[in-house]
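User: Please predict structures.

Assistant: First:
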Amino acid sequence: MSVDTASVLRPASEADLSEAIREASAPIAIRGGGTRPVGRPLPGAVLETGAMSGITLYEPGALTLVARAGTPLAEVEVALAAEGQRLPFEPMDYRGLLGTMGTPTLGGMVAANASGPRRVVAGACRDSLIGVRFVDGMGTVVKNGGRVMKNVTGYDLVKLLAGSWGTLGVLSEVSFKLLPRPESAATLVWQGLDAAQAVALMSAALGTPYEVNGAAHLPDGRTLLRIEGFTRSVAYRANELAVALARFGRSVTLDREETATLWDAVRDVAPFHGREGDVWRLSVKPSDAPALAAKAGGEALFDWGGGLVWLLLPQGTDLRAKLGAFSGHATLIRASLDTRRTIPPFQPEPAPIAALTRGLRQKFDPRGILNPGLME
């Protein structure tokens, strides 16, 4: 998040965090690792959560992890990999796309509901989140959910915090359910399909019994399908999938190492790294995606079988004005400060939803000091 002052608060504990918010008399810009400057530029002192770090509970047998919000994501991934496990939702790393440094944290990941290609089968970050602790705008510590998958107390509030971008509360601790890491993986690649053909292929693939868990179409014309699991099963399913989709042309199969590298690039929207232009994130029905991408112009990367479209457009483009009315939402992810002040980065909400949103923020942050205006 961009801020207009160098004043920085760095609470080292949940108690410090509560005190800092309780004593605040002006807006606070919440920052985890500083890797996702998305939304309206913010005034006020920066509050960093990175000092509240560390894994507090990890039970591999129960597929459960609890950690403080400032814990680096990389630290968690190393701990999980040592036990042959992973976060199910493949969280995106925004640094390459946004040109930021910093260290991605668990709290920032949850606040952004950061989710990658595997969302088509594993769900989003919020779907793996089973518990949170956070401090609201009055400095009150709130606990919701639990530390085991069976505990669903307050589940709706747990999910509400994911994707709220720090406007409802500042996370201090998060709990996740986990999944085992697969033994093997493969990617089937088709060349030369247009967007409509690619979406048709991806939709067909996701409807097969072969457990495709990644479906993307890149700006260079490659269409990708990923399969993971036991080695023999992956080989069998990859062959059967190639036969089932032979009407779209011949495919090439990549091995596990090539698959990992390629899907990291899809996850992080690597084709748009270091390039001039604004980046928009368009969430739509896959069947609508090709026509909307064509109308938008620029370059497009399709993920989630076409349900997510990343667009690289000329600077200052108002994508919503260009598309007109459509079913879905468009988020301005990368743009200059002036553009983010002029064009609402987040999709404006219909009046009834906007009223609910205002009510929630009034409940959790009655003083309006937590990232005020960020999502407006």
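Second:
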Amino acid sequence: MINQLLRFNPILKEKIWGGDKLQTILNKETDKTNVGESWEISDVEGDTSIVSNGDLKGKNLNQLIKEYKQDILGEKVYQIFEDKFPLLIKFIDAKKKLSLQVHPNDILAQKRHNSLGKTEMWYIVNSDKKAKIIIGFSEETNRDSFIKTIQEGNELELLNVDYVKKGDTFLVPAGRIHAIGKGVLLAEIQETSDITYRISDWNRKDAEGNKRDLHLDLALDAIDYSAKSNYKAEYLKKKNTPSNIVDCKYFTTNFLHLTKDLSVDHYDKDSFVIYMCVEGDALLEYGNKQEKIKMGETVLMPACLKKMNIITNNAKLLEVYIK
């Protein structure tokens, strides 16, 4: 049986659009520049997270799952995903806007890439004034109409743009077209998949003067051309109790704003539980052990650990698990 909370060394990714907020706001230590992503928990091939604390320090996540199985994942989750961790947890800093992109669903990703698809959600941790995102279409359209706007260089014509602020949350199902705008720092929770189809990169060139590859032909079959009146995930921000933000087949995410200490138990869950700290800090006490979690840090609570006390310093946490 595994008897500790798990912390991991962040996997930091330089990006053409990355900045320095992962260092200056979330206190990530690195000599890299233009850091766009911090992979907090990953079982993506070639980027498997390494434990940074306790008796299991130095072991990678995939090794642990193979050794401890349902003790980490939970019985039902293990039956579905076996020796793979089903979620990829990130912080993203967009100093410049990201490409216009879409992710395939599970069926298409399995067919084309032998992979899971990519449904994800965003929680805005920090944003510059008038920062915005592109998410979905502003009106229902179709493949031919969208191709025409791309060819004419008017892709923004059909797209929905939302201005964002700290605490805003968005569910981005596979198939929903999107782009994170400049000045946005967010937490991202997604299926374990690194498949992205770039539709437009705004004619951007890298330091060598090269444009990045686009995948329009692949994207057209993946896009959901319907439209919504509101793409923001509305939720109650109650204090000292979990407020549900997103509840989908891939993950459930709750928001916890703690102004006083809280005792939590997860006997009703057959799943690991992840805590991402998006503001303040807290001490996580379990058994005779404890782990401090600060803004920008992530902790994995294995499924076999069911109780914990959270000693708060005005912490705001995202609580993530699979139903």
